[in-house]
Amino acid sequence: MALYTKAAEILDKVEQKRGAVKTLVYDSKFQNIKQLFALVCETQKYSAVLQEIIDTTRLLKLTNLRQHLAKVLVYDLLIGQGLKCGGSWKAMMLKHRSRLQAALARIKVKRKVSRNQDLLPPNVQHNNDVHIPRYVRVNTLKTTVEDVIDYLKRDGFSYQGTASQLEDLRSLSGKTFMSDLHLRDLLVFSAKVNFHDHYLYKAGHIILQDKASCLPAYLLDPPVGGHVIDACAAPGNKTSHLAAIMKNKGKLFAFDRDTKRLSTMSTLLLRAGVTCHQLANEDFLKVDPLSPAYKDVKHILLDPSCSGSGMVCLHDGGSEEQDPERLKALAAFQLRCLNHALKFPKLQNLVYSTCSIHTQENEEVMSVCLEKNPDFRLIHLLPEWPERGRDPLTQCLRASTTKTFTHGFFIAMLERQTTRNSGSLDEHHDCHRSPSKSEPTVGEEEQMVVSVDEQQLPAARKRNRKKPKKQKS
Ligand SMILES: C[S@@+](CC[C@H](N)C(=O)[O-])C[C@H]1O[C@@H](n2cnc3c(N)ncnc32)[C@H](O)[C@@H]1O
Q1: Which residues span the domain enclosing 194?
Q2: Sequence ranges of the binding site for S-adenosyl-L-methionine
Q3: Mutation test of ligand 1: which of 215, 232, 361 has the most ligand atoms closer than 8 Å to its C-beta?
Q4: Residues 410, 354: contact at Cβ < 8 Å?
Q5: Which of 14, 196, 300, 377 is such that its CA lies 20 to 30 A from the CA of 316?
Q6: 244 and 337 together in one domain
Q7: What is the pLDDT of residues 213-257, one digit of tens each?
């Protein structure tokens, strides 16, 4: 019920011009931001058709529903997931289902189309060309890639082998699927495949996670038995990924300051079979880097709150305006988190990621951080990845709907520079994965945090010390 109420509330605010969809969704503090975002975008996209259905069936009169709530419910019933949740509203809507279905069918006949998407206005149909496949990460804490592939084949899916080029990922349709070309534990399906009710998903054997969001843990690649921090962890997709890479051995300290999101995270980690974690409802900025508890932490994953501008809403093509003050505040927060993380005395590697497309939250934050922390340098990541950080930070990765067929994303990896004779890096020489498929394994949601006492970030400075990507031995 909460999902539908929130979605209706946001549509109402958008209509009153009280904010852009993305900002309102992010500020809503709803637990599953992605789900809420998708529902709002899709309902908006079909708004005209939904309105026509509501008017011709006189739904508002029959049910006393408010307009936006009715739209959201009709969308989900007729076009979306089929009202998976909804409590008493579900029961009420089901009573009217045949009238509503008949109204939709009449509209299709009138417009001489057979598919729902052909009812969309032409400009929205064009944005629909944005194509992000359905990515499924195999949870190696519970199963193996081979077992999942076998299970799916028995379930009527057809396995096409491993993709040899990115374009292959866009060719999938129906029940065909393939292994990703970069990440061994990632399976790729047509965007239309829905796994939310699938046994493998419910049992925690697979995790529904965008490919770009799988990169941070994969690239950090902490060793089995290592001590690792996930600084802004909820709802925990990257935490469970880190645990899988660590084979549930060692210590995974996960922090988040949002209680609700942490409780969702606990459920997710339980389902995923993660046991090596210590969850803390704590502000990462207040965690003491010199505490004996963290004396062996050598790896940190930092995926802080961001604008979420990389998350694609098919309705707006991702082009919503961002409030400059909000971006500034976020960038200052991200820089504080980075500077704080680099204070952990034994830290060797840190991966910084955002689901933002804005340079202010990505390359600019990273450039200032490098200026302030000369002991650290950028690692050149995945040489054949097609989309790089903005010049001069080409060691970093970017991801997008058009070049990598993922949501928009940014990833940077920092490494502590040590003198040759200290040996501490050599001991860790195989931590940066090459993009080969030889090794096993490899969420974005959030809540706004605007507690900034940093100075305004200066423009990115041209610091660029390249270092060749280490290959896995
Ligand atoms: C982008 S989300 C993290 C997504 C997560 N890494 C995943 O993959 O599922 C950012 C998270 O940072 C949390 N956060 C924001 N400020 C924080 C702080 N000062 N300390 C700890 N967590 C914080 C938010 O509550 C939010 O859950």
Answers
A1: 134-208
A2: 232-238, 256, 283, 303
A3: 232
A4: yes
A5: 196
A6: yes
A7: 999 999 999 999 999 999 999 999 999 999 999 999 999 999 999
